[in-house]
Every structure is written in structure tokens, then in C-alpha cells.
Amino acid sequence: MSKIRVMSAGAVEGPVTELAPAFTKAKGIEVDLSFNTVGALKARFEGGEKTDVIILSVPAIEAIEKAGRVAGGSRTDLGLATCGVAVRDGMMMPNIATVDGFKRMLKFAVSIAANDPAHGGSSGIYLADLLKRMDLAAEVSPKLKLYKTGRECAFALVRGEAEIGITFTSEFIAVPGTRVVGPLPQEIAYVNGYAGAIAKDAQAEVARTFLGFLAEPQSRACFARYGLG
User: Fold this and answer.
1) CB–CB of 229/191 below 8 Å?
2) Among residues 220, 228, 124, which one has the least CA distance to residue 170?
3) Confidence class for position 135, pLDDT limits 50, 70, 90
């Protein structure tokens, strides 16, 4: 059986992980998946790590496309991830319908799981900047429990290591035992598009087949179930 290597951002880990076995069954091609933050994967890819398909945020895909690292015209848009709040299943849901409500949650929360911006996570970078803009960095930063990926943030909620989690809702939905409270209020909303592209020296035909599979209607429906519109 032939094999394809896929490097993918964690925001789409849920649907990509679910769809990979279906692709293998339908096409007879095994999928070797590697997940991490956008920043970490982009650095590895630019450092020479080999892959057939790379799935990153749209700005990151545009950057490596501009640098000539992926096949021209191979970009395939996959979905939009929304940054939001989650708690452990069964816990009280904070009211974050307004910016003031979101601020109150931050002030009263004992511990908050978030993506470590130093590891290149898009939601973590955004949250760090948002706290500065809200003039809450000094007050809230000591409460933050930083993890390398959004998925680890979700598991931290399940284990009871943090009271609140803030990252892309798709990463919470993929982990049983978490409950999404909702997206950030509209005024401070953060939505990030994700896309896949074919590496310049990839198995082009196999990679094209995989991206085409992810773009099929049933695959789009799978992305939607994980909150990726």
C-alpha cells in the first residue's frame, strides 16, 4: 500500500484524523499524520522536513507559497476555525456573550489553559495580544497554564488542571469531556482560515487526490461537525 505524509495544524486535527481512515479505505493509500502548531510546522517545513501535503493557516500557506515551497495552484481551503472558550463537561458555564462578560470571566477564573505563543500557536499568539490590548496582561497572565497545542489545552480541562480553556473551538470539540461555552464576543472575535497545499517535491498525484478528498461534500460536512465552517 502506498503512503502519503501529511503535516497538519492542530486546529483541524479532529476532522483530518477522522477522515484519514476513510481516505485509506476509499483510495488504498495510507496516511501518515503529524500534528502541531502552525508556527512549529512552518519552521520544520522551511527547515527541510519532507511532507507531501501541508495544512496550515491561510497566511502561513500564502507565505510558503510566495517563497516557492509549494506547488502553484495547489492551495485547497478547508475551513474556518473560531477561537472560543470551553470548560470541563459538567462545570458551570460562564457568560461570555459580551466583552464585559468575557473580562469578568478572566478576572474571576482561577486557572486558564491556553496555547503557548512561544510554540507558534495562532490562538495563543492572539490571546496574548488581546490581553495586552485589554490592559489585563499583568492580572491574567499569572493564571495562564500554557500548553504546546490546543489539544493539550483541552486535555488539561478534562484532567482538571485548568478551570477555563481558550483556543479554537474545533480543538475542544475533538476531545470528549470538554464543553464549548461559545466563541469570543464579536468585537474581539478571532477566526482563522485553514488550507492545505502540495509540497514542491511531493508525490504530487497522491497529494492532489488527498486534498481533493478533503474538499468533497461529505468531508466538508465532517469539518463542519467540528465547528470548522
Assistant:
1) no
2) 228
3) very high
> What residues have CB less than 8 Å from 159, skipping those under 6 apart?
none
How many domains does the chain contain in total? 2
Q: How far is CA 47 from CA 8, 14, 26, 51, 207, in A?
A: 16, 26, 33, 12, 21
Read off the CATH number of the domain in which 35 is found.
Answer: 3.40.190.10
DSSP 50: -
Distances (CA, A) of 31 to 11, 22, 169: 18, 10, 25
In this prediction, residue 229 has a pLDDT band, given cuts at 50, 70 and 90, of confident
Same structural domain for residues 97 and 127? yes
Residues 100 and 197 in one domain: no
Three cell numbers written together for 170: 474545533
**Gap between the Cα atoms of 97 and 60, Å rounded:** 30
Q: Residue 218: is its pLDDT beyond 80?
A: yes
Residues forming a β-bridge with 197: 54
pTM over 0.85: yes
Give 163-199 as a DSSP string.
SEEEEEHHHHHTSTTEEEEEEPPGGG--EEEEEEEEB
Residues 105, 28, single domain; the answer is no
Residues 163-214: tens digit of each pLDDT = 999 999 999 999 999 999 999 999 999 999 999 999 998 999 999 999 999 9
> Does 100 lie in the same domain as 134?
yes
Distance CA 117, CA 67 (A): 24
Task: Kindly state whether residues 91 and 184 are assigned to the same domain.
Answer: yes
